[in-house]
Automatic annotation (TrEMBL):
<comment type="similarity">
    <text>Belongs to the ABC transporter superfamily.</text>
</comment>
<keyword id="KW-0472">Membrane</keyword>
<dbReference type="InterPro" id="IPR003439">
    <property type="entry name" value="ABC_transporter-like_ATP-bd"/>
</dbReference>
<dbReference type="InterPro" id="IPR013563">
    <property type="entry name" value="Oligopep_ABC_C"/>
</dbReference>
<keyword id="KW-0547">Nucleotide-binding</keyword>
<protein>
    <submittedName>
        <fullName>ABC transporter ATP-binding protein</fullName>
    </submittedName>
</protein>
<dbReference type="Pfam" id="PF08352">
    <property type="entry name" value="oligo_HPY"/>
</dbReference>
<feature type="domain" description="ABC transporter">
    <location>
        <begin position="4"/>
        <end position="254"/>
    </location>
</feature>
<dbReference type="Pfam" id="PF00005">
    <property type="entry name" value="ABC_tran"/>
</dbReference>
<dbReference type="InterPro" id="IPR017871">
    <property type="entry name" value="ABC_transporter-like_CS"/>
</dbReference>
<dbReference type="InterPro" id="IPR027417">
    <property type="entry name" value="P-loop_NTPase"/>
</dbReference>
<dbReference type="GO" id="GO:0005524">
    <property type="term" value="F:ATP binding"/>
</dbReference>
<keyword id="KW-1003">Cell membrane</keyword>
<keyword id="KW-0813">Transport</keyword>
<dbReference type="InterPro" id="IPR050388">
    <property type="entry name" value="ABC_Ni/Peptide_Import"/>
</dbReference>
<dbReference type="InterPro" id="IPR003593">
    <property type="entry name" value="AAA+_ATPase"/>
</dbReference>
<keyword id="KW-0067">ATP-binding</keyword>
Length: 327
């Protein structure tokens, strides 16, 4: 049984100007010990997908359709009081800004011990020992001493390691990481990516890594799901999606990465901007920016597949025919 199965997830925000379909029919699975990279531009619905899984949506947003099956239990149907038993203990989240996780006026020891005692019947002595061991596990030197420190006494990279340690305290079956290395320098980013990959395999956790950085996802994830305007437009293994992309949007993202082009070549940016949430066109939301679009792209989309590689496009790969197998 997969750790997480998301089926046709729909998360809408009911505003005075209309209904914003932030997540519109998203489906994917994550198995034990597997890392899924959820990628796309800002505003594509990646973070809202993560918040929907954990039940962290604020009004006026709510899940209006689909299923979120965590080891067979549909989280979308759980009342808030039951969801608390999952959140933090069996499913953890790492935020982009560690200060969203850490309380600036409490020591690291207090925050970690209280996190453990909120879900487990554990003595303070044992909780402190586990907190110390977990800090060491994520690469924080002198963990005994650092337990007495406060968040402002850590660098940005060390604060993010503390946030990761808190997420790991209960050895959750699923971790959702929302761009946790975006604000860090490349050296610290590389270290944290290595630790996350190692810990995921060591403890058999499932990991959803939300990012806009395809380079990070290429070196970390087992599978990739590319989101655009609230929907997944292409998904598959890392090799399938990043080495042989077929959707014009994925191809456009790959073409905008400097490392993929010969020295001195001009980047190939995707023209235009993503449509406003309340003004998305019918059919394919990408069609107004797509060089391969035709009249048929205004029709309802279907999903095509070749093995585990799936895409939603009437003209797969037509934008750059040399970037993969023939349509």
């Amino acid at each position: 049984m997969a750790t997480l199965v998301v089926e046709d997830l729909q998360t809408h925000f009911f505003t005075k100007k209309g209904v914003v379909k932030s997540v519109d029919g998203v489906s994917f699975t994550v198995d034990k010990g597997e890392i899924l990279g959820l990628v796309g531009e800002s505003g594509s619905g990646k973070s809202i997908t993560g918040f929907s899984i954990l039940g962290l949506l604020d009004d006026p947003g709510r899940v209006v359709g689909g299923r979120i099956l965590f080891q067979g239990q549909d989280l979308a149907k759980l009342p808030e009081k039951d969801m608390r038993a999952y959140r933090g203990k069996r499913i953890a989240m790492i935020f982009q800004d560690p200060m969203m996780t850490l309380n600036p006026v409490l020591s690291i020891e207090t925050q970690m011990v209280e996190t453990l005692q909120a879900h487990e019947n554990i003595s303070r002595k044992d909780a402190k020992a586990r907190a110390r061991d977990t800090l060491g596990m994520v690469g924080i030197p002198s963990p005994d001493e650092r337990l007495a420190s406060y968040p402002h006494q850590f660098s940005g990279g060390m604060r993010q390691r503390v946030a990761i340690a808190i997420a790991l305290l209960h050895r959750p079956e699923l971790i959702i990481a929302d761009e946790p290395t975006t604000a860090l320098d490349v050296t610290i980013q590389s270290q944290i990516l290595y630790e996350m990959q190692r810990l995921t395999k060591e403890f058999g956790m499932a990991l959803i890594w939300i990012s806009h950085d395809l380079g990070v996802v290429a070196g970390l994830a087992d599978k990739v799901a590319v989101m655009y305007a609230g929907s997944i437009v292409e998904s598959g293994t890392v090799d399938e999606v990043l080495d042989r992309p077929v959707h014009p949007y994925t191809i456009g993202l790959m073409g905008a990465i400097p490392a993929n082009l010969p020295r001195g070549s001009l980047l190939r940016p995707i023209p235009g901007m993503a449509p406003p949430p309340l003004m998305r066109p019918s059919g394919c939301s990408f069609r107004e920016r797509c060089p391969a679009a035709t009249e048929v792209c205004a029709s309802p989309l279907t999903t095509d597949a070749l093995g585990t590689h799936t895409w939603r496009c009437f003209h797969p790969q037509n934008a750059h025919p040399d970037n993969g197998r023939a349509a």
